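Observation: inputs received (chain + coenzyme A).
Thought: call the complex predictor directly.
Action: predict_structure
Action Input:
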Amino acid sequence: MLDTTTISHLIKSEDLNHHGTLFAGRMAEWLVEASFIAAARLVRRPEDVVCVQIHGMSFDRAAAKGDLIELRADVAYLGTKSITVHAAVYVNEQAEPSVSGLSTFVTVDRDGKPYAHGLALPDEYVERHRAIHDRARQVRAGG
Ligand SMILES: CC(C)(COP(=O)(O)OP(=O)(O)OC[C@H]1O[C@@H](n2cnc3c(N)ncnc32)[C@H](O)[C@@H]1OP(=O)(O)O)[C@@H](O)C(=O)NCCC(=O)NCCS
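Observation:
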């Protein structure tokens, strides 16, 4: 399935850092989890999906206890055995994301050996997701 994977969290005391704002490690965990789910929903075999790289995350605004956050993850790029997912985090329904990042997953068999997933993104999907598609291609090329 290629629809957006959406996950919500309430920020609680145990999610905070020593500044009293959301701990980056917690945010990273949630972001990779949402991205993993987007990749697993596409492959339809969650047990075959492993994360091979987190390409970086940009933390542009802080979030605080009691804030409601929504993670939205979309498949951005498909390689032969790889799936690169873009995830963005919205705090309290703000229009601009507070955090965003790309992660790459690989399809592996029971022995952990990568295999070709045989999936492709429809042209219409790529056009609708042009910005994240181009960004993913860029980072996958090492840019
Ligand atoms: C994922 C893993 C099986 C890939 O093995 P590999 O021998 O590099 O696989 P391949 O060379 O066949 O590459 C498979 C795909 O992964 C991509 N890839 C491999 N290493 C990558 C990396 N570090 N970053 C981004 N993509 C990578 C390749 O470009 C290729 O993509 P393509 O199919 O689009 O061309 C292996 O690195 C592994 O087991 N890693 C541990 C995964 C894990 O435990 N994850 C949990 C995180 S704690």
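Thought: report the result.
Final Answer: Residues 5-140 form a domain with the Thiol Ester Dehydrase; Chain A fold (CATH 3.10.129.10). The longest strand covers residues 49-59.
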